[in-house]
Specification:
With 238 residues, the chain is mostly helical. It contains eleven helices and no strands.
Length: 238
C-alpha cells in the first residue's frame, strides 16, 4: 500500500507488522526446536500412531522383506499377517533406540528458516521503498506474472495430489481419506482452477482476478503450516 500510494501511515503499520511477523517466526522456530529436543518418549508416540493404523505395520514389513535375500516366489507367498508381524517385530526391537532430531526433516526446517530470512530482508528493504517503487513493473506486467505463477501453482498442486494419493495408497492402504492436509491441498487446487477458469473463459483481469490468486496462495501456506501444526490428522505434528 505504501509503495503504490506513498502513505506514511501505511509504511509505519507495515513495518510494525513485519517486525511482529519476524518475532513470531523466531518464537515458532525456537518452540519447534525445543519441542523436538524435549520429547522424551518417541517410541510411545510412534507406537500409538502405528496401533491406530495397523496397515503401517504391513507397509513397514513389506519394505523390510524387500531388503532381505528372498526370492520372488518366497516374497509373493508372504501374507499381510506375516508382513505385519515382521513390522511389529522391527519396531519392538528398534523402537526404544529411536529419538527425534531437528535434522530428521531438514527440508521443512530449511523452509522455516528461509521464510524467517525472507521476512528479515523484507524489513531491510522496507527502509528503501523509494528505489523499490521506481523498479516496480507496470500493472500489466504484474498481471501477466500473476497468471504465469498461478498456472505453475495449479500444475504443481495437481502433481502433489496425484503423487500424494499414490504414496497414501502405499502407506495407509487408501489413496484418499479426506485428511486435513489432503482436503486443504484440494481446496487450494480448486481455488487456482477457479482463477484460471475466470481468467480464460471470463476474461477476468486486474483486481478481481488478483483476489483469487491471493486466496490460493494463503490456502497453500495454511495447508503447509497451519494444517501441520494446528489441525488434527495423519499429517499433524502438533
Amino acid at each position: 500500500v505504501y509503495i503504490y500510494r506513498d502513505s506514511i501511515a501505511a509504511r509505519r503499520v507495515g513495518q510494525i507488522l513485519l517486525k511482529l511477523a519476524l518475532a513470531a517466526q523466531i518464537i515458532s522456530v525456537a518452540f519447534l526446536v525445543s519441542g523436538v529436543r524435549s520429547t522424551p518418549n518417541v517410541f510411545g508416540i510412534l507406537q500409538a500412531q502405528l496401533n491406530a493404523n495397523p496397515m503401517q505395520y504391513v507397509t513397514a514389513g513389506r519394505a523390510i522383506a524387500e531388503q532381505q535375500d528372498l526370492s520372488a516366489q518366497e516374497f509373493a507367498m508372504m501374507t499381510p499377517a506375516q508382513f505385519e508381524q515382521m513390522g511389529r517385530g522391527y519396531f519392538q526391537s528398534a523402537g526404544p533406540t529411536m529419538y527425534l532430531s531437528v535434522q530428521t526433516n531438514p527440508v521443512e526446517l530449511a523452509g522455516l528458516l528461509t521464510a524467517l530470512a525472507g521476512t528479515f530482508f523484507v524489513i531491510l528493504f522496507s527502509f528503501r521503498t523509494e528505489s523499490l517503487r521506481e523498479r516496480l513493473p507496470g500493472l500489466d506486467a504484474l498481471d501477466a506474472l500473476m497468471y504465469k505463477t498461478a498456472s505453475l501453482a495449479f500444475a504443481g498442486l495437481a502433481m502433489l495430489l496425484i503423487t500424494g494419493a499414490i504414496w497414501a495408497n502405499e502407506s495407509w492402504g487408501r489413496p484418499w481419506g479426506f485428511d486435513s492436509k489432503e482436503t486443504g491441498a484440494l481446496v487450494a487446487w480448486l481455488t487456482y482452477a477457479a482463477f484460471l477458469h475466470t481468467r480464460i473463459s471470463r476474461g477476468w483481469k486486474g483486481r478481481s482476478s488478483a483476489y483469487f490468486a491471493i486466496i490460493g496462495f494463503l490456502l497453500v501456506i495454511f495447508t503447509y503450516l497451519g494444517v501441520s501444526y494446528l489441525l488434527p490428522g495423519l499429517h499433524s505434528y502438533a
